[in-house]
Every structure is written in C-alpha cells, then in structure tokens.
Amino acid sequence: MQIAHSIEDLRRLLQNAKQRAFVPTMGNLHAGHLELVKVAKQTLPEAMSVASIFVNRLQFAPHEDFDSYPRTFANDCALLEAQGCNILFAPQEKDLYPEPQVFKVHPPAELADILEGAFRPGFFVGVSTVVHKLFNCVQPDVAVFGKKDYQQLMVIQRMVQQMALPIQIVGVDTLRADDGLALSSRNGYLSSDERARAVELSGALKQMAANVRSNLSRNLSGEASKAIAQIEEQAMQSLRDKGWQPDYLVVRHQHDLSAVTQFSDAPLVVLGAARLGSTRLIDNLEV
Ligand code: PAF
Fold it and tell me: Ligand 1 centroid to 120 CA: how many Å?
C-alpha cells in the first residue's frame, strides 16, 4: 500500500489509474471499515482502491470530541494493507484546509437539519464539504459508505445527484458485534459496564421495527401518525427507564427520511441516537 500525505502526492500516485474505488474514513478502523474496502474492491475489481483517513474538524462542534477522537494511524495502516487497499490518502490538516474553508456545501435543511443535524448543527455542512473535497482529490468512480451513518449516506447520495458528480455511491449494511451492537469507533469510549448495556439501543430499534411491522400488517393503508408517535414515545421511554438519554428514536421513510403519516408499502427505517453516560451512540434498522 502506498501512502499519500498531500493532495499533490495523491494525484501523482493516481495519475495512471483508469478507475478508482474510494472509502473515506476518519481512521480508528474496525471490521466495519474493512468491509467497506472489501465492497469497494468487489464493486470495481480493476480499480485502484483508495481509502482516506482524515479527522475532519469542520464536522465537529466546539464542545464535541475532535481533540480526543481516537487516532490509531499505524494500526489503521496495517489493517488497510492486509485488506489489500492500494492507496491510503492521509492528508495533514494544513494540506486539506491550507486556509479557513469558506466555500462550503450546504445540504438542504429538510434532509440535513433533522435528526443528527438537529442535535449536531452544522454537522452535515462539515461532512458534505469534506466529502466533496475528498471526491475532488481522489476523483473516484465508486465511493462506499456504511449504512450505520444512514442520514450521512442520504445526504451524500443527494449531493452527488444534485451536483451531477459522476460517482456511484454504494451503501453497505452495518456490521455488528455478537450481541448486536453496531460497530463504531466511538464504542471505545464505553466503560465495560456501559459496553454490556450498549446493545439496548439496537434492542429498542428492533422492538420499534417489530411494532411497525405489526401495525403495518393490521393497517395496510390509512392514517399512521398516531401509531408511529406512540411507537416512538414508547421506545424513548424504555431507553430512559434503562438510564439512557435518548436524543431521538424515530420511524421514517428510507428514501428521504420524511415522517410517516400514512401506512403504505414504502420502505421504512427506524433511526436512533442516545447517550449512555458521556458516549453518544447512533444506530438504525431498515424495516
Ligand atoms: O463517516 C465518516 O467517517 C465521516 O463522516 C466521513 C464520511 C469520512 C467524512 O469525514
């Protein structure tokens, strides 16, 4: 695996690549990230596979964990190399942001100011801006993202479509630990007691999905708002009762994350974010 620490180095390494398959990350890699690399390589077997590691200050609010975000570069390199990744792009902050980034990508409020965006103002501006910039550096044919960050995947798909970027976006199912906890770099913040309880978030989402399915089977069409609100409130209360501080637990349409007001055969997703102690976890399940 070759490592590029600047945009210039990366462009040199890629100059003869006919196709590029890209996995952007913030490092501290786990099996979920390696799965994204595997899918990138499978999607375009002839392509040069490129992963990036860059902890993007733009997507962290001042009170969030930018400084303490785990940085495990040597281990990440070994994992990527073993996965057969061809190029790692690991720019310095001064290379990607040589001056304050004043041109930014602003995704539409209806997609980016809800859910994660409501609790993390500016998050999707930071994500969209860095992903657009990384796309310009790598110029991928395919880019692969995990479905664990479901809303992020929707925002990026929309950006690519609206900006006519010639990139195929692939979403990959979330990898989970044996007990069902979604793999995440932030799981490392959990104490051993919290780690044992962390599965309660995916448990709550599973219960919500089961409740949605049983409502759907009884009401194939018709008014859904009340039933959905009840399912969401029950799930919030059950997590609060277990000592969590939930931000949201919601049922939404998969394609645009809009609220569900009518039962129909449109595919749905349940999404949740909640704090356990000082760690904020997110997860989702397609219904
Ligand atoms: O999902 C992530 O790790 C980050 O949000 C991303 C897409 C690499 C942008 O910094």
Answer: 14
Q: Which of 146, 112, 110, 109 is nearest to 127 (CA)?
A: 112
Contact 184, 31 (CB under 8 A): no
Token pair 């479905």 is at which residue? Answer: 147
Distance 243 CA to ligand 1 centre (A): 29
Ligand 1 atom closest to residue 156's alpha carbon, by position in its atom list: 7
pLDDT tens digits, residue range 231-270?
A: 999 999 999 999 999 999 999 999 999 999 999 889 999 9
All domains of the chain, ordered by start, with CATH? 2-172 (3.40.50.620), 185-286 (3.30.1300.10)
Q: Model pTM greater than 0.85? A: yes
Orientation angle between helical segments 225-241 and 199-218, nearest 10 degrees: 160
Ligand 1: atom nearest CA of 185 is 3
To the query of whether residue 255 is one of the catalytic residues in this protein, the response is: no
Judged on CB neighbours under 10 Å (0-12, 13-18, 19+), 40 is buried
Identify the sign of the CA torsion 149, 154, 157, 158: negative
Q: How much distance in Å is there from the Cα of 131 to the middle of ligand 1? A: 8
Q: Which of 29, 52, 152 to mutate to test the pocket of ligand 1 (most atoms within 8 A of CB)?
A: 152
CA distance 207 to 2: 45
